[in-house]
């Protein structure tokens, strides 16, 4: 039960609505995530969370008796649940179409939670613990597993696994830079560039790793000429065509 | 004045050598770095630093009156000085030869300081502060500036800058994974793969960014057929040759 965008946070009338335990919990987490999205967790007070959710401070404590640390971890967990689902996608059609949809979901989350996303990934918060670090690592692991499933290699060798993990880090880094630069370029361009990076890394790794080469061949066979790989290939040719001395 | 490898840390005889202030300071930083390399800063005591350097605890305090926090920051600063110099390289010859030498230096540092390098980059230490975060960011910035100089584009547009920063993150991530996986594959293979990634990212970004395309063309013109780009190109062709339906 996410609060609709634009719904005023101080409409205390919401405090009087009868919500189920699950709805109330979701409402509190949502209020907390919105606040953590714009300020570091240590700068957010429980009073503010209560006010943003239009409830009393004791009610926040009833749901989260561990106070801010527990609320922060639960909010992080709920963000992680969303992020971990980003790369879940039916395993059919061209790989780039599946990754493109996954990136759209991921970048929509980044866009919505910008400062909170940055705080989450960069750590350094005083409420950061080994548990929150494990949560972030869990998101990365889930994303890697999904991508490897899409590549048809659920149990990869070290090279392909390293390539996928490296690309996930590149996606994170590019997202942080994107937030930092006032969300330039447009999100669709960022997505297409990250997709191009994936194709480039897969191809470069295929050059020296037979397992990756087999996965790349299988993936390429499903791509269409008007899809991202075809467009990238036709654009790369003019750049490299002057370098025939290298072949 | 680095302590030679294999020099026993508990040879207290060293305490009686007359060292200059600078030599003593370097010796203490070196002892601290060795300890921080294998354990998180919060688990290292000043007594251990004193013992590793073969000096008394008061002497450590005389050089670092701020105690462990100051010693940690100074050790980090000295590590940063080494890392920032990694990518400094004469601007002549093929780009891949320059980057290859830079990666050799960087990965030698990673190899020598493994756990300390991981702790440094992953943060989460209780002695982590905004100053230490700024130091790590400074290393990344210095590396990016050097690479952009090698590309002949000291003041790049957002796309090329993002590409270089993304690759630096990929190098960091791959280094951490490499440590995590017991330093497999061999460091030369890791270096060559990171170099292949750079070529792949540069080429993919050149597809949609004219500035990057110009830099890539200029870089390719300096490459030799038996260099990394030539080898990569000849290895990639068999993988993509089945995908002529995309052209």
From TrEMBL, chains A, B:
<keyword id="KW-0805">Transcription regulation</keyword>
<keyword id="KW-0804">Transcription</keyword>
<dbReference type="Pfam" id="PF00440">
    <property type="entry name" value="TetR_N"/>
</dbReference>
<feature type="domain" description="HTH tetR-type">
    <location>
        <begin position="22"/>
        <end position="82"/>
    </location>
</feature>
<feature type="DNA-binding region" description="H-T-H motif">
    <location>
        <begin position="45"/>
        <end position="64"/>
    </location>
</feature>
<dbReference type="InterPro" id="IPR050109">
    <property type="entry name" value="HTH-type_TetR-like_transc_reg"/>
</dbReference>
<keyword id="KW-0238">DNA-binding</keyword>
<dbReference type="InterPro" id="IPR054129">
    <property type="entry name" value="DesT_TetR_C"/>
</dbReference>
<dbReference type="InterPro" id="IPR001647">
    <property type="entry name" value="HTH_TetR"/>
</dbReference>
<dbReference type="Pfam" id="PF21943">
    <property type="entry name" value="TetR_C_46"/>
</dbReference>
<protein>
    <recommendedName>
        <fullName>HTH tetR-type domain-containing protein</fullName>
    </recommendedName>
</protein>
<dbReference type="InterPro" id="IPR009057">
    <property type="entry name" value="Homeodomain-like_sf"/>
</dbReference>
């Amino acid at each position: 039960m996410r609060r609709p965008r634009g719904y005023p946070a101080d409409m205390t009338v919401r405090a009087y609505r009868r919500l189920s335990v699950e709805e109330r919990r979701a409402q509190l987490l949502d209020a907390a995530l919105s606040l953590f999205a714009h300020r570091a967790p240590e700068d957010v007070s429980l009073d503010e969370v209560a006010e943003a959710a239009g409830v009393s401070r004791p009610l926040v404590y009833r749901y989260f008796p561990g106070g801010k640390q527990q609320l922060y971890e639960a909010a992080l967990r709920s963000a992680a649940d969303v992020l971990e689902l980003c790369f879940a996608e039916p395993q059919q059609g061209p790989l780039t179409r599946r990754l493109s949809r996954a990136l759209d979901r991921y970048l929509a989350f980044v866009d919505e939670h910008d400062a909170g996303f940055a705080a989450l990934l960069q750590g350094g918060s005083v409420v950061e613990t080994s548990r929150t670090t494990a949560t972030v690592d869990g998101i990365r692991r889930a994303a890697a597993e999904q991508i490897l499933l899409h590549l048809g290699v659920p149990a990869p060798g070290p090279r392909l696994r390293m390539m996928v993990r490296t690309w996930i880090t590149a996606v994170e880094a590019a997202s942080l830079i994107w937030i930092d630069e006032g969300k330039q370029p447009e999100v669709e361009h960022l997505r297409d560039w990250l997709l191009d990076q994936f194709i480039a890394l897969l191809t470069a790794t295929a050059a020296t790793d037979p397992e990756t080469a087999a996965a790349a061949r299988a993936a390429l066979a499903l791509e269409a000429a008007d899809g991202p790989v075809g467009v990238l290939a036709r654009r790369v040719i003019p750049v490299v065509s002057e370098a025939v001395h290298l072949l």
